[in-house]
Amino acid sequence: PTLTPTTSPTSLPSTSPSHPFIEFYTLSDTPDELPLDGIKLAWDLQGNIPPDTPFVLHLGNILPSSVATTSVVPPCDESLYATSQAILLHSTAPVFVTPGDGDWYDCPDDVRMTSWSYWKKYYSSFDTNWNTPATASVSRQMNRPENFFFVHEFVLFVGVNISGRNEPTRRAFENRLASARNWALKGLRESVGVVTSMVVFCHERPRSYHDDFFESLAARVDRLGLPLLVLHG
Predict the structure, then answer these.
(1) pLDDT (tens digit, 9 = 90+) per residue, 27-64?
(2) Of the ranges 36-45, 114-123, 209-218, which one carries the lowest mean pLDDT score?
(3) Sign (positive/negative) of CA torsion 30, 35, 38, 43?
(4) Contact 54, 24 (CB under 8 A)
(5) 3-state secondary structure string, the chain?
(6) pTM to 2 decimals?
(7) Burial, 170: exposed, middle or buried (Cβ in 10 Å; 0-12, 13-18, 19+)?
(8) Helices 112-123, 78-88: crossing angle, 10 deg rounding
(9) Among 19-23, 114-118, 192-196, where is mean pLDDT lowest?
(10) Interatomic CA distance for residues 77 and 133, integer angstroms
(11) Could you give the C-alpha distances from 118 to 38, 39, 113, 155, 209, in angstroms and in order?
């Protein structure tokens, strides 16, 4: 501070930042209604994304809810996953997808785990449909391939499965959350000294029963002095 502020700089500004801004797109809870919402989304992904967009993040709930509740198509039918996949494949930029509650957990009890198998079939490695610098550096958790990370422009991006609450027991949920925590921390360990910030994307917003994940992660990035951005659906 100074007692005599001025609108004129005292010297030339410093050189341009060495790490440029990253522009990417996020989606969630779409496509919602078929066919109109699907047609619009496919058009946007194919024609309205700038050609230099490095990637798109889908934060979960890829099933069209308005169709899933009709008598024509059974709830969480495999055809809905295939239809949503075909729509997202129109994207000119690679799309990374994390699971949402509506993709499996909110499905009827008798088809919930079958729905999860459909999600894994169509989306657990969805970004491999593109070959770009971002997709080339992706690391996936062996036992839970829906958890992954990659480094792009000195930023660590981590996608994790934070959806649902009981799978079908509390212990199963805690194990799934612990796997997400361990994977995010592994991404940090492997990128220390390389990245300048971190982005985590998932479906659910942080809640008290997610403390094992978010508090552990917050403590680690605080010690490292890294900015952290959490994107959720």
Answers:
(1) 999 887 777 788 888 989 998 899 999 999 999 999 87
(2) 36-45
(3) negative
(4) yes
(5) CCCCCCCCCCCCCCCCCCCCCCCCEEECCCCCCCCHHHHHHHHHHHHCCCCCCCCEEECCCCCCHHHHCCCCCCCCCHHHHHHHHHHHCCCCCCEEECCCHHHCCCCCHHHHHHHHHHHHHHHCCHHHHCCCHHHHCCEECCCCCCCEEEEECCEEEEECCCCCCCCCCHHHHHHHHHHHHHHHHHHHHHHCCCCCEEEEECCCCCCHHHHHHHHHHHHHHHHHCCCEEEECC
(6) 0.87
(7) exposed
(8) 30
(9) 19-23
(10) 34
(11) 19, 22, 9, 31, 26
**Two structure tokens written together for 57:** 């993040």
Tell me what the pLDDT averaged over the chain comes to. 87
Question: What is the band of 3 on the pLDDT scale with cuts at 50, 70, 90?
Answer: very low
What pLDDT digit, counting tens, does each position of 59-89 carry? Answer: 999 987 654 445 577 889 999 999 999 999 9
Question: How would you classify residue 160: left for phi > 0, otherwise alpha for psi between -120 and 50, otherwise beta?
Answer: beta
